[in-house]
Amino acid sequence: MSDLPSRVEIFEEGPREGFQSSAVVPTAQKLRLIDALAQTGLSQIDCTSFVNTRLVPQMADAEQIAAGLVKRPGVRYISLWLSESGFRRALATSFDLAPSVLCCVSSTAAEKNSGCSGAELIRRQGRMIDLYREHALPLEYAHLSNAFGCSYEGHISTAQAMATLEELLAVCAAHGALPRVVYLSDTVGAGTPQSVSSLIGAARSRWPEQQFALHLHDTRGMGLANAWAGLTMGISRFDASIGGLGGCPFSGARGTTGNICTEDLALMCEEMGIATGLDLDRLADCARLAEEIIGQDLPGKFKRAGRLGVALGAAA
Amino acid sequence: MSDLPSRVEIFEEGPREGFQSSAVVPTAQKLRLIDALAQTGLSQIDCTSFVNTRLVPQMADAEQIAAGLVKRPGVRYISLWLSESGFRRALATSFDLAPSVLCCVSSTAAEKNSGCSGAELIRRQGRMIDLYREHALPLEYAHLSNAFGCSYEGHISTAQAMATLEELLAVCAAHGALPRVVYLSDTVGAGTPQSVSSLIGAARSRWPEQQFALHLHDTRGMGLANAWAGLTMGISRFDASIGGLGGCPFSGARGTTGNICTEDLALMCEEMGIATGLDLDRLADCARLAEEIIGQDLPGKFKRAGRLGVALGAAA
User: Fold this and answer.
1) In the list A60, A95, A239, B22, which could disulfide-bond A215, CB 3.0-4.6 Å?
2) Residues of chain B neighbouring A225 (CB-CB closer than 8 A)
3) How far is the C-alpha of A58 from the C-alpha of A49, rounded, in Å?
4) Are residue A131 and residue A226 in the same domain, yes or no?
């Protein structure tokens, strides 16, 4: 446990990744949640995606979200895009820009989600980097999607993930920009504590100067176990989603479970003396607000269990 | 990760600890679940408690459960008791006997649950050991309840837990019987991966020959993270509950969340090459049966997510 960080940064994905996989939520409700989240100590909130609104109608109000933001100091309000046209839409708004590139370890998932091979998807990232440079924007994130597995191809080996990341970083280098942070993304919740530890270990050995972060999903219950594995390997940046928002965890829908839960991850860190800068009670209020907005229970535990010796009832 | 076991034993607590905290379930339904569980590869099922039926009406049918069992080979059907009268009731049935002693690190919880101080509770265990000897029964389990925290006293330190365990094992030794397995029991889900690792490390150093097991609850979402912490410390025995059965996870009730989920723990182990001997698909069927019986969704994830690359839908 010698690598355990003393402080972690938890970035909020709920309004983007969470609402992206739910029924369409009114813009005003999204803005209400974003503003509540902005008062919890979170330093970065992913607010929406600039993607094909025909395919993803949940995100059709991306411009309206930007227009409705009341920006609070100390909070970055970012958005996601996956193409040049998405980037240009984001550029025209008030969002804080987080220029990123992405690749996908699973070629099947790349085909299904991007309509091109994994190799072609990586080549396209060079054009994105050139575009960022034209706007004097440094490259911030590189996302290694499906780093641990995929719904179509099953588990993915560390060697396979490393080979894809090698290709992506080669394209970055060829275009003169290395990402500030590389996200190892467990897109469908395929990782185990062992595979997460293995990939972090391999990536840190190969690129000792590179900063790595984890984007985890709790599809199969191992989300916080994987986060703990990451913490013991020195990872200090995590994406998470308020209440575990995302997908339809209590319907029959499969493979659409949300990110690991923001407040549960924060609780685990805080109780081990790892500072998060987050207000747990306010986060729990936000999780309840998210439940109210989607009209469904969310899987996060802290909002129900409360603090030990404070809110808990009798021993079970 | 050098201490990772190659095989773990997962013991089923659902019919006892799960149904104990739900509404009263008809005996026939309990028997149906027990028999389904007995066909999953589980080697031990905790079927019921011999406790005060006025205080715990859910367990009033303990004798009828025993009478209704269809015992399948290779499965131990055990029950719990906390007093001499409970033991005598169990003795009169067909249950496999698992003689145990218990103590409680939290004196407040001991008072509330047993009506005596923690020290007095430990003294009473000597009488239980004598009773077991009268029936030529070796001592099997020692339970260290509230080993990591308590709803009343909050977090409990490793030193406090160690002091209580020291007292319990001294009483055991004075009465000429040491337990085959000591359970470090996170009764209310108060542990973190760090506190779980810390207590296991301290206990293994103090009693290197003693076998330890973990009884974990997922009240605050850290259940599988704590299990992973235990696995990395070489723990190879875990209690768990089908589907995460126990308490009312989706009602407003607090502090009554169930054990860690049997099939999710089994999935995590199997995917890391740690053998469980369990049939995951049959366990998922049992979890759905448990949901049908209690008329509520259970928190376990595997029963919804399925196997990677087999049942999962499109990437989220």
Assistant:
1) A239
2) 224-225, 227-228, 268
3) 9
4) yes
- Which of A240, A255, A285 terminates a domain? The answer is A240
Domain that includes residue B287, residue range:
9-305
Q: Residue A164 maps to which CATH number?
A: 3.20.20.70
pTM for this predicted structure: 0.95
What is the residue-level pLDDT of chain B in tens, covering all 316 positions?
Answer: 557 999 999 999 999 999 988 789 999 999 999 999 999 999 999 999 999 999 899 999 999 999 999 999 999 999 999 999 999 999 999 999 999 999 999 999 999 888 899 999 999 999 999 999 999 999 999 999 999 999 888 999 999 999 999 999 999 999 999 999 999 999 999 999 999 999 999 999 999 999 999 999 999 999 999 999 999 999 999 999 999 998 643 333 444 578 999 999 999 999 999 999 999 999 999 999 999 999 999 999 999 998 886 544 433 3
**Interior CA angle at A31 toward A132 and A58, to 5°?**
70
Is B67 a member of any domain? yes
Which is the catalytic residue, given B47, B103, B248, B286?
B248
At B63, list the tokens.
């004798």
With respect to residue A18, please indicate whether it lies within any of the assigned structural domains: yes
Task: Tell me whether 0.90 is exceeded by the ipTM.
Answer: yes
Q: Is residue B311 in some structural domain?
A: no
By C-alpha distance, the chain B residue nearest A145 is: B315
Same domain for A190 and A113: yes
Chain B residues in contact with A311 (beta carbon < 8 A): 254
Catalytic site residue from A248, A261, A269, A286: A248
| Closest CA in chain B for residue A307 | B154
Do the chains contact at B247 and A316, CB–CB below 8 Å?
Answer: yes
A235 in the same domain as A105: yes
Tell whether A141 is covered by a domain: yes
Task: Look at chain B and report how many structural domains it folds into.
Answer: 1
Nearest chain A CA: its distance from B252 CA (Å) = 7
